[in-house]
Amino acid sequence: MTQDSTVSFGRDALYVNPLDQAASFSFDEQVARVFPDMIKRSVPGYSQIIGMLGVIARQHVKTGGRVYDLGASLGAATLSVGHQLQDSSVELVAVDNAPAMVTRCREVLQRELPAQPLSVIESDIRALDYKPCDLVILNFTLQFLPPEDRTPLLQKLYAALKPGGALIVGEKIHFADEVQQQWLYELHHDFKRANGYSDMEISQKRSAIEDVLRTDTADDHLKRLTDIGFIPVTQWFQYLNFAAFLAIKPSQNDGGVYAAT
Ligand SMILES: Nc1ncnc2c1ncn2[C@@H]1O[C@H](C[S@+](CC[C@H]([NH3+])C(=O)[O-])CC(=O)[O-])[C@@H](O)[C@H]1O
Ligand SMILES: O=C(O)C(=O)Cc1ccccc1
User: Where does S-adenosyl-L-methionine bind (predicted)?
Assistant: First the structure.
């Protein structure tokens, strides 16, 4: 962070003190202020995924193309794509519906990617009219939509993607097998404890997110994306109960087998 920046970020201590009743988690001013620290200490592999998003973008984004980062928060995924592509003919579009995130995101991205055509849009991603695009990133965002809204959004994104375009979905997942679910759930708890959260912080945060973050299984994701028409669909990442998927919109002339630049 540069000296003249108005954006500053702190350590996540939101759930340190006992709360009578934890309010539902929301992406407000308090969360935005500690978000980089919160997500790195809470999501196993977050930094590795972010780094790889830019690398994957290089395979799928063409000259003059467009990339959407949906539920962009502070723009980390867009930043990774911008740094990897280094292509000022590509438009990067970051969208989030939380005003506290959008303000900071705009400032960070304009400062870090000054030569890039860039839009930071405050909008619900379900309401947006999507322009033709090469890559859509939903990095830990789909999980916050009501389950019944997930397929309609993904269908809309499929329609906007150009043939050969890619969708990347990062998600917290759960497991159909109860033993596996319990095991990975506990390991995630231990991961957070190893990153400096107390048991009380972990359990208060869990109560606050349980109604707003509803997970699917990896199979749910693979099936839903395949049913919509994406092919191939692959899971390219898993670290404990966090996973990421890559889904391609097939092009007419590759027999639906593979598409990239
Ligand atoms: N309907 C919606 N419309 C727009 N934005 C939404 C909606 N619902 C939730 N959001 C936004 O989705 C983001 C989810 S965080 C994404 C991290 C980021 N992708 C990253 O790669 O750093 C993940 C997490 O905190 O676990 C928040 O900024 C919400 O405001
Ligand atoms: O903290 C958790 O347990 C999570 O599942 C990840 C997360 C990270 C940031 C905001 C909300 C959820």
Answer: 46, 71-73, 96-97, 124-125, 139, 206
